[in-house]
Write a structure and sequence with these properties.
Blueprint lengths: L1 E5 L4 H14 L2 E8 L9 H8 L3 E6 L1 H15 L10 H20 L3 E3 L8 H12 L4 E3 L10 H10 L14 E4 L4 E4 L29 E8 L2 E5 L2 E2 L2 H14 L4 E7 L5 E7 L1 H17 L2 H19 L6 H13 L5 E8 L2 E8 L7 H4 L11 H9 L1 H10 L2 H21 L1
Parallel strand pairs: 1-2, 1-4, 2-3, 4-5
Antiparallel strand pairs: 6-7, 7-12, 8-9, 8-13, 9-10, 11-12, 13-14
Length: about 425
């Protein structure tokens, strides 16, 4: 039997390699993708082989991650649980796809992951496997083995001489990090009344310690996709890296929330998404001058649908393709520049412009406009309020008074139409 394991080099997957060999008598091949986690793929191949893997496949997925997963999610404006910008959820479909590709390339019988039976990631990976590799058996050690804690895993590793270099044996938080964000879960955060200690945050400076002077930056967008910072065109990885650095030094992008996991429980997470928070703020502001009212409302509805789809691991579905196609149409005109101000944890848009702006100063002005006659509003309001007036007329004076009220309403509508 041949198994491809999604490998991170942490404690769980380091233990899973020998466990799979013992329990299944299998050849274990490790696969890892660089989506911007600390250190990338450095040292992972050597560690995987020392742990007992027969081969290691690693690939730099950062550009594809940003352009094909992060930016489409940004473009549609998806936010889960009112605060979560979906950093972990976005990385799982691309990693799951690459794992299936490696499995097919080496002729594997199964794929395995190191997710627990309580989290969302098991669902995200396994739905990716189901969509792209339905022929592959799925093995989830945390749902099978008798290791019930981090301490059990450490003991298992020590008994078998498994190398644990780089593994923090006193790990307090469970973290996930990529180009978009870093998340913190577990430990003292499991008490929702616990206020996070400043030492927990790894990216962002405390807003209280951020510079006393605000910083302004200009962001350029084309069809809803960010393309430049302060006039300099950058690829997705460069752009996001720069915005993460700028946002972090101003304490931007912290979010503390209790979210609803797909498996049914509530869990608490603290997220740092500095660059993403800047981009969401700027893009929403640019849409205010480039997207009409009805399209904006539809976009907000579909954004919530996208957030659920992505959070629940349903990326590789016709639903996502349809939502993305609609988003591309609605964002076709979202081109222009936005200047944002960063100051002690906050980010706000202060200037916006677009070559296809729907904003007309002559129409918006309180002064005289050749193209707008204030008197036209009277007839519009009478017609727009017709349902309200009809309901009110029917309720006036009981049965005896209603006919007269209705007659007056009909006359008023007729006069408005004539006007």
């Amino acid at each position: 039997m041949k198994i491809v394991l999604g490998y991170s080099g942490g404690l769980d997957t380091s233990v899973i390699v020998p466990w799979l060999k013992e329990m299944y008598g299998a050849e274990v091949i490790c696969m890892a993708g660089d989506v911007g986690q600390p250190g990338g793929l450095d040292g992972l191949e050597e560690k995987a082989l020392r742990t007992g893997a027969s081969a290691f496949y690693g690939e730099d997925l950062r550009q594809e991650f940003v352009h094909d997963f992060v930016f489409p999610t940004l473009k549609i404006g998806a936010v889960y649980g009112r605060k979560y910008l979906l950093g972990t959820a976005m990385a799982r479909p691309i990693l799951g796809r690459r794992q299936v590709e490696v499995a097919h390339m080496v002729g594997a019988d199964a794929v395995a992951h190191g997710c627990t039976g309580k989290g969302n990631d098991q669902i995200r990976f396994e739905l990716s496997y189901a969509a792209l590799g339905p022929d592959l058996k799925i093995i989830a050690p945390w749902r099978e083995w008798d290791l019930h804690s981090r301490e059990d895993c450490l003991e298992y590793a020590r008994e078998r001489g498994i190398p644990l270099e780089g593994v923090d044996e006193a790990k307090l938080y469970s973290r996930d990090e990529n180009l978009w964000h870093i998340s913190h879960e577990g430990g003292p955060l499991e008490d929702p009344a616990f206020e996070p200690e400043e030492a927990m945050y790894l990216w962002t400076l405390s807003p209280e310690l951020a510079p006393d002077d605000p910083e302004r930056i200009s962001l350029g967008f084309e069809a809803g996709v960010p393309v430049s910072v302060d006039g300099e065109r950058l690829d997705g990885v460069e752009l996001l890296t720069r915005l993460n650095q700028i946002g972090s030094r101003h304490g931007v992008g912290r979010a503390d929330l209790v979210e609803n996991r797909l498996v049914g429980m509530k869990s608490r997470g603290v997220y740092e998404t500095p660059g993403g928070t800047i981009l969401y703020t700027a893009l929403k502001d640019l849409e205010s001058i480039t997207v009409d009212r009805r399209t904006e409302g539809l976009k907000d509805e579909l954004a919530a649908r996208w957030a659920d789809m992505l959070y629940e691991g349903r990326w590789w579905t016709p639903e996502r393709q349809a939502l993305q196609a609609a988003s591309d149409v609605m964002s076709a005109t979202v081109t222009g520049d936005v200047t944002v101000k960063l100051y002690k944890g906050s980010v706000s848009a202060v200037s916006r412009s677009s070559p296809v702006s729907l904003y007309r100063e002559d129409l918006a002005s309180f002064g005289h406009a050749v193209t707008y006659d204030h008197a036209d509003a009277a007839g519009f309001i009478r017609l727009f309020g017709l349902p309200i007036r009809a309901a009110a007329a029917a309720a006036v004076g009981g049965e005896s008074g209603a006919p007269d009220a209705v007659s007056r309403l009909i006359e008023e509508v007729a006069e408005a139409g004539a006007a």
